[in-house]
Amino acid sequence: VFLNGLLDPLFIFGLGFVPAMGVKGAALATAVSRFFTLVLSLYVLHKRKQLITLDIGRFEQIWDVWKRVLFIGIPTGLSRMITPISASVITALLATYGEFAVSAYGVGTRLEFLTASLLVALSAAISPFTGQNWGANRIDRIQRALNLAGFFSIGWGIFASVFLFAFAEPLAGIFSSDKEVIETTVMFLKIVPVSFGFQGIAMIVNANLNTMNRPLSASILIVVQMLVIYIPLAYLGSSIDGIRGIFIALLITYLCGGSLSFITSYISLKRMRQKEVLAEERN
């Protein structure tokens, strides 16, 4: 981030022998920053932590590792493609109303990303906790952690929705001076944020399921949320209530996605707990 912050203005606006490259410069700054981050990461992993070895071993060992990694990696990678694809479809739908609708949607989703950053961090933190307790057969602790994370997510979502509702207009005014963009952004901020907490639950459960070696369940939840619920509802909402209908569709999608994710996680953990109890009884 520090390197990106230095290179962005240099490559975008130019300085001395470095020409101004505009948007291309921003892309180049990101590429260069990520390259140096990769080099630094490899150095730390290999030299300091000694977690990388140049001894690749037998092919059977390599294939065994690849299978276990790809079992989670392929479904997760494919499911992560669903979200930008869905966003592209919704953007195309909003474009039929004009550029102001697309701009407002962009502002709204960026404010959503900033608001959800705390929940994204929580979903990342839940993975190692789940992994450790799953390895120790402490399913009860995983369930308790998910419950606490879910309550926090709902609480944060309520706080964020109240804040965004109260300051919707001044926040929208920061990003644009266009009246239509501001009005449509305000509409987004007064409808969608109510469901942010449920979307947080969906993110937390998704990370949790991947950690527990259930990538297909995690991927199916994303597919159902974005393709089965969101896109059809968005088109239906658009035909009934225009742009407002699309935003309401997103609200319903997040509510349904979070609820389905929590139920799926609860059932999975309950089954695992039952198997654990049966194993203890046999022993």
Distance between the termini: 52 Å
Rg on CA atoms, Å: 22 Å
Percent strand equals under 5%
**What average pLDDT do the residues reach?**
91
The succession of helices and strands, N to C, reads HHHHHHHHH
Could you name the ranges where pLDDT drops below 50 across 5 or more consecutive residues?
A: none
Tally of separate helices: 9
| Quaternary organization | single chain
The global form is globular
The largest β sheet comes out as: none
**Based on DSSP secondary structure assignment, what is the total number of beta strands?**
0
Overall helicity: over 70%
Class based on secondary structure composition and strand pairing: mainly alpha
Question: Helices, strands, pairings?
Answer:
Elements: H1 2-13, H2 23-48, H3 59-95, H4 99-135, H5 139-166, H6 168-175, H7 179-191, H8 196-211, H9 215-282
Helix pairs in contact: 1-2, 3-4, 3-9, 4-5, 4-7, 4-8, 5-8, 5-9, 6-7, 7-9, 8-9
